Amino acid sequence: MEPLNLPTYLFRIKEDKGKKYIFDEIRRRYVQLTPEEWVRQHVVNYLVTVKNFPLGLISVEKGFNSNRRRQRFDLLVYSRKGEPLMIVECKAPGVEINQHVFDQAGRYNNKYMAIYMLITNGIKHYCCEISRVNKQYRFLPDVPDFSSVNAGG
After folding, report:
1. DSSP codes of every residue in 118-147
2. What is the CATH number of the domain that holds 92?
3. Which residues does residue 15 pair with via DSSP β-bridges, in sequence order?
4. Per-residue pLDDT tens for 105-131?
5. Bridge-based pairing state of the strands 19-24 and 13-16
6. How many domains are there within the chain?
7. What does the pLDDT look like over 4-56, one tens digit per residue?
8. In principle, which of 21, 84, 104, 122 could form an S-S bond with 39, CB 3.0–4.6 Å?
9. Which stretches within 1-147 are classed as H helix?
10. CA count, 13 A, side-chain hemisphere, 117
11. For position 94, what pLDDT does the model report?
């Protein structure tokens, strides 16, 4: 897999029948190693090791219904009170982060109303804070540390 614009981590990777798998610490199982999964696993590790988000407050690839369609977010981070804090949309490194990707993440967040949204392809990262009052985005220079956000104590 190609290098990303994120810290390097040691992952447990195995090969079976010509396909590679990476161990997901949240799901506690091996999942197929796709370019998007490579980004997702790096983001999880970055949030936990650099930004101090508790691993137990991160949910991976859960499905939900939106406009009668089945959707699935990449990552949803919760506050200590169990409220959605940050929704994360991961794309493969070769996927351009454009308005369509922001719209997709925004639609997902309509269900959860997280106050932070992180969109990344592993190379470029966009983090914004969303006002629940006027639904406007404010781009942040960096992903906030867990201790600095309204994490519910």
Report:
1. EEE-SSSEEEEEE-TTT--EEEESSPPPGG
2. 3.90.1570.30
3. 20
4. 888 888 888 999 999 999 999 999 998
5. antiparallel
6. 1
7. 999 999 999 999 999 999 999 999 999 999 999 999 999 999 999 999 999 99
8. 122
9. 35-49, 99-112
10. 27
11. 94
Q: Report the C-alpha gap between 47 and 116 in whole angstroms.
A: 13
- The answer to whether position 110 is within a domain reads yes
The per-residue b/e assignment along 132-146, b for 16 or more CB within 10 angstroms, e otherwise, is eeeeeeeeeeebbeb
Question: What tens digit of pLDDT does each residue of 74-87 get?
Answer: 999 999 999 999 99
Report yes or no on 146 lying in a domain.
no
In-domain check, residue 104: yes
Three-state SS at 86: strand
CB-CB contact of 87 with 73 (8 Å): yes
Domain that includes residue 120, residue range: 35-141
- Is residue 129 in some structural domain? yes
Structure tokens at 24: 């997901």
User: Could you tell me the two tokens for 109?
Assistant: 């967040």
- Hey, CA dihedral for 20, 25, 26, 29, is it positive or negative? positive
